[in-house]
């Protein structure tokens, strides 16, 4: 059977020729497959659902872009979008505050490890717990209200105030985020190049100028990471809203992620199409941001970091 | 996750429910201890009386049931399932998934008298298109719970008209007491107030037309309701900061004597008493009359039993529904539930709140099911958001009602 021998020979030779090129793909295949099934496919599927009017069970009706048209005329959508912007801006405070704390804690005195872990603690507790505890603080019968009343400013419930409730939630959300940024900077500070610092000192740099010109540039990777996780954290701000106000009072603390959940999946909402349309908008915003950062990363890697 | 799992298991168990004659498949969501105990008693009793029937129960998680019912009614219908009266059952009735049981209601020949007599006051919420689609087995009243001692100390007698009610609020406010406590964080408490104001100002028929989407929210009659509401909101008769409180969190002010009334359902009594109030200082009265001459309809969310139109054993299903309508069965079940039997032949334990509720509901013109059961889900969620916003910013009434009208046109189209 010379023929079959030749065939198998040819096969293995093709394999041998391309082995080097194919191996990475074979190793990537399981991950890639999962990525396609659980990330890529759902993205396109949800974009498709956003063109439907569907309650999740009865037959779906194709309605074109009318969900998006309705979105343009939906004041809750704009409120959510504005709140997302507020989250984005004020959540950024976590980065400098985290840096400040990291520098403050980056000393070698007795018990500093314990203190560091105490500062890191908020990040370890579940977001849900933080949300509930802050909601208790803000409750007019909790801590802050009675205190204000005691010092004569009158009781005040921030979570019931449409103008400030969002800031109250952001404040609660920032609390663990600061700890996260702090730990990123602490690891960064551990890896500082002491030669450079000493060289800087010899050249007469001290105090703020030393920090600004020598230390901060070395912390660039940590800063990059801190900003990335903070922006993503602010856009994903769902759990705090869900726990502390459920988007209330009257929808004034909604963010896109929660509004999407409310319309599509909560007890009162079975509008899968409309929810998907909101998701698509959120996705687009995130995509711009992610592409920008991938581009930046690519550029700096090309320069050789 | 647990819920989803429970639902999946329940659905899976439906798969092999072989329905030979004499098996009665019942789907329920009775996971709370009291309803569970009450129904276990009822199932045993039914089986005792009907040894030829085997009951098979698929118990769903309470939250998961709301999703599961859509699935099982279309794909694998049980014989009997529990649900709620009013518009909550409308989508299923409209889709032809629920069996018409008018014959049970009009049949006068069965053991315990007839339904039309014993439950006539509860017939309207079970009626769609002139037919009845199930039977009610328990409900509870809504009304005003109040501090008797605070009323006495300020020389107020129980108000029966709107003017008396507003005057009572003014007296209490002047005495430094918050007239009405409420916690509107989870929105639905505001709907209780709205429902009663609408039922008393415009009557049951208008309220039903509104919740069915037949009347615009910008209608002058709706404005009339808000005019009445203004009389309570604008002078500040409701608890301050209510938008940040859950309904339970609004109970302490009343227990502490800082507030005097609460428009609530009877389930709140347990919490009032836990807080230290007793039958001596906690009282109940019917929401006062607003427009004279309008028959008094009450808010009484009703739990109901239905037969699926795809049921395999309709004969025994009907026997079970008739069994569940009986005065003695409802009496026993509701003792365990701590709620009111719908059959007017049933008695309740000597409890002033249950007795007052029973008396009020047995004489009610009709029963509303609560805004979020009478109106479809989407409308209800937007409506209740609007009520909450109004109660904090009464000046935005027009804007809110216009927004609700926009939602109405979308939801009911």
The gist of it:
The complex is a heterodimer of chains A (305) and B (413). Chain A has 14 helices and 2 strands.
Provide the fold topology.
The complex is a heterodimer of chains A (305) and B (413).
Chain A: H1 2-49, E1 52-53, E2 61-62, H2 66-72, H3 75-91, H4 94-105, H5 112-124, H6 127-138, H7 144-150, H8 165-190, H9 194-202, H10 207-218, H11 220-235, H12 239-244, H13 256-264, H14 272-302
Antiparallel strand pairs in A: 1-2
Helix pairs in contact in A: 1-14, 3-8, 3-11, 4-8, 5-8, 6-8, 8-11, 13-14
Chain B: H1 2-15, E1 23-28, H2 33-49, E2 54-59, H3 62-75, E3 80-84, H4 90-94, H5 102-106, H6 115-118, E4 127-128, E5 131-132, E6 135-139, E7 142-147, H7 148-153, H8 162-174, E8 178-181, H9 188-201, H10 204-211, H11 220-233, H12 251-255, E9 259-265, H13 268-274, E10 282-285, E11 298-299, E12 302-307, H14 314-325, H15 327-337, H16 352-362, E13 367-368, H17 371-374, H18 377-392, H19 397-411
Parallel strand pairs in B: 1-2, 1-3, 8-9, 11-13
Antiparallel strand pairs in B: 3-12, 4-5, 6-12, 7-9, 7-10
Helix pairs in contact in B: 1-3, 2-15, 9-10, 9-11, 9-18, 18-19
CATH architecture of chain A: Orthogonal Bundle
Largest beta sheet: strand ordering of chain A:
1-2
Look at the helices and sheets of chain A and give the structural class: mainly alpha
Spans of chain A of at least 5 consecutive residues whose pLDDT stays below 50 are none
| Beta strand % of chain A | under 5%
The radius of gyration over CA of chain A amounts to 26 Å
How far apart, in Å, are the first and last alpha carbons of chain B?
A: 35 Å
SS class of chain B: alpha/beta
Shape of chain B: globular
Count of separate DSSP helical elements of chain B: 19
SSE succession of chain A: HEEHHHHHHHHHHHHH
Total of domains of chain A = 1
Q: Give average pLDDT of chain B, whole number.
A: 85
Per CATH, the superfamily of chain A is MetI-like
